[in-house]
Description:
Layout: H1 2-13, H2 15-18, H3 22-31, H4 36-44, H5 48-54
Amino acid sequence: MTDTIELLEAIGSDASLRYARTDELKSVLEQVQASAELTAAVAAGDSSPLRVELGIQQVPQAPQTHAPGHGDDEEDGESDTPQQPDRAPPSSSNQDSSH
């Protein structure tokens, strides 16, 4: 398992491996004699074999919900952007009084 974790760290830190095509990555894993589970996970694009090897239980995904105050629906009138203070209307003293 330690080798698998080290290989995952190497893949994550090396862009040429992280973004490699599936067949290229599978070939590299076979060359370094990676575990059958890691190789199968890469080949299938499915992390299930890897979760079995690492003993990770599938965590049920809770549906995403909209938290109040964290979106476009601003019920209380508050906004993330600062409000501009109300400006007084232009005063009438600037008008031309030479009629």
